[in-house]
Amino acid sequence: MFERYLRPMWAFVFRDWHLTRRYMSWVAVFVFYAIVNSATIALIGKAQDDFRLTLTLLLGVLLWSFLSAMYNEIANSISYERWEGTLEYTFMAPVSRLVHLSGVSLFAIVFSVFRTIVILVGLVLFIQVSVDGANLLGVLAVLLVASLAFMGLGLMAAILPVMSPENGAQATNIFQGVLLLVSGIYYPVSVLPAWVQPLSYLSPATYALEASRKLMGINHPESTPDRLVGAPLSSVLPELGILLLMGVVLIPLGLWVFHTAEMWAKRTGKLKRTG
Amino acid sequence: MIKSMLTLKPTETRIAIEVSDLKKVFRKREGLRAPIKEEWALKGVSFYVHVGETYGLLGPNGSGKSTLIRILSTLLTADGGRVQMMGHQLPQGEQALRRLMGRVSVDAAFYKKLSPRENLLYAAQLYGLESRQAEKRAMQILEQLGLESRRFSDPIEEMSRGMQQKIAIARALLINPPLLLLDEPTTGLDPRSRRDVQAFLEDLRKREGTTILLTTHDMAEAERLSYRIGFLAKGRLVAEGTAQELKQQARTDDLEEAFIALTGEDLSEEANSP
User: Fold this and answer.
1) d(CA B9, CA B131)
2) What residue spans in chain B does CATH classification 3.40.50.300 cover?
């Protein structure tokens, strides 16, 4: 069990940690940029002197930062390998795709949680906003459950660089952009054109946001700028249930889609570095 | 020559690799309305390799060598024919087979920012090896290949191509595989690194009885390392035998001339290219 599954899974965490370590200056620059970018969005609420808007934007920016970082790590794991020229070696290792992608996802989740905490601390220091009374542990639980669904989406997006060595990596951004648009990260879904609104029900981010806003107490009538009235975790069980269901469906679906794309790539010779 | 042929001769009669009528076609459409073009990379290749034998495949670029190695490495699916290796048939037995073979390709594919140590430990863990044991083995192999251990923690991107290729060989041998697929492992290496790698491969075959399938442009290398050699041209195996037999067949004393005579192709330009 350990030698066949856990150690190979750990190999991907080991690799990604050391790659992150070697690119630490890049990580620092990107995190700094994420803090500044998030602050510029959250300050829109501050300018309106509206703590609910400020917190809505702050939550949106953090949640999207977490989910998109995780999605990117998974979706681009194949692009990185193609770029480095190691894709064939990874694919000929005696490791199941489940173990391979679980290892990549495990690092992605840990890295994204750490990155989000750093951004949160940076933002709270910069824009002086109180989160007293918010159920932050509940928000963390929602993020972790939502991670499963995003893992599934990341797995599906990861096939794009397998199928198209030239354009696949860029195409993952289109997928991500559509999720950003339909999930109501910074605005209520009701402002979207009517024909787009049904798509929001398909995005896990919609439910993660809805649940997190309740847990933070952003729209609770008794919340004040100094003290929020966060809801208990039990009040978001329907959203958690939907997110869990999405994860349970999307992860096996993602693995199946990936396996199908891998078989196709092996028939057409697309695993080669240059395609 | 006869003496060296005797040392190359495998002592086993069991078959490690058996390839029968292997075919691979790549289909490409250039433009949406253009018809699909078919390019046959392999047009029915058959050969076998004994356990403990080094079999050399010689052929120019585009002859199908890399396609063949990729199919054997489980990275490409064949369109026809049969491949059986170490008792496992492809593609059904690919998962079991991956534990039994190592591969070295012409480009040493590594995470360039990581050190040899990090790259090798990652590879070892992928195969379920314990880190300390893998590190010890990697050090032994690298020392045998002439790589200084003090460079073990430098990023690979700072190393020469010869050094990178030696690390690629160490990676392939970490699991001590009974089967080694070498796709032009010495192309682009300086003469000293080339000699180091060739001597190591000779020693490995003698010491461990490893079965080696080697593709190369280099006639001297094929002759030095391989008991039997196959000439591959335009997706077909046009001739096969020991270097001596191939030369006799072409009535010449030179393997390169034999290659030209039997395939109608010239390897000299490619052998000199980096």
Assistant:
1) 36
2) 37-100+181-274
Render pLDDT for B150-162 as a digit per residue (tens, 0 to 9). Answer: 777 888 988 888 8
At residue B272, the pLDDT reads 43
Q: How many CA atoms lie within 13 A of A42 on its CB side?
A: 24
User: What are the CA-CA distances from residue A150 to residues A71, B150, B192 (Å)?
Assistant: 6, 43, 51
Of residues B26, B109, B127, nearest to A269 (C-beta): B26
Confidence (pTM)? 0.84
Residue A27's identity, in one-letter code, is V
Specify whether the CB–CB gap between B54 and B201 falls below 8 A: yes
Partner A contacted by B118 (CB < 8 A): yes
ipTM reported for the complex surpasses 0.85: no
Report domain B37-100+181-274's class: alpha beta
- Mutation test of the interface with chain A: which of B36, B114, B126, choosing the one with the most A Cβ atoms within 10 A? B126
Q: Do A215 and A139 meet the contact criterion of CB atoms below 8 Å apart?
A: yes
- Chain A contacts of B126, Cβ < 8 Å? 8, 11, 90, 93-95
**Residues sharing a CB contact under 8 Å with residue B245, sequence separation 6 or more, in sequence order:** none
- Picking from A72, A253, A71, A216, the residue whose alpha carbon sits closest to that of residue A141 is A216
